[in-house]
Amino acid sequence: MILNCVIIDNEPLAAELLASYAKKTPFLHVIGTFNSAVEGIRSIRENKVDLIFLDIQMPELSGLEFAKILSSETKIVFTTAFNQYAVDAYKVNAIDYLLKPISYEDFLSAANKALEWFSIIRKTDLYNKDRFIFVKSEYKLVQVRLDDINFIEGVKDYVKIYLEDGRSPIMSLMNMKKIEEYLPYPEFMRTHRSYIVHMTKVKLVDRFRLVFGEDFIPISDSYKEDVQNYLDGHTLT
What we know:
The chain has 7 helices and 15 strands. By secondary structure, it is of the alpha/beta class.
C-alpha cells in the first residue's frame, strides 16, 4: 500500500528534512512540500492525500485550524517544537504528535502508525461492502457471511464463530482483537473480553445478559456503558 502525503511547515529547512524522510520511506509518496497551510490547500483539494505532516504554529492559518477543515479521510501527524498542543491535536484525531527536532526513527514510527490505520480501514471497508470474510479453519479457508454470525467467543488462542443456522461453531486460530478490528462497529460489539456480539441478532436481554437460545452472553463492567448506550438507543420508553 502506498500513502500519498504532503509536508506543510513554515520553516523551509524543517520541511525539506521531513520531505527527505518521506522520500526514503517506501510506502510514502510525496505529493508536495509547502511552507504554509494556505499554500497546501489547492494541492490537497486537487489530489487524493492520505497523510499530512503538519506544523502547528504557522502564519495565516495554524495547523490546528487547518486540521478542522480537512476531510476525515485525511490523517495528520503534527510536527512542532511545542508540546502544549498535544491535547488539542488528539481532539482532531491526529495519528501522532512529533516534537522537533524529529529523528527519522520517530518519523518512521508515526508513518507506520498511519500505514496500519489505513490498512485496517481499507480492509474493513472491503469486508463491509462484500459482507463476508474468510477465516482459516482446519487447514482450509472458510467463507463466513457477516449476516450469519450470532456471536464470537474467544477461547485461549482461538475464536469460535457461532452461526445463526445452528451449524457447529467455526474454530480459527486467531485472537479476539484481530477479528474485532475487521468487524463493523457498532453492529458487532465487544461485550466481554471473551465475546463479540452481532447486536442486530439480539432478540432478548435477560438480567443484562444477551440471550441466544440456550447461550447467555455476559456483559462485563469494561464494556457495560457501550452496550447500555446501544440498547438505550434502540429501546422505546
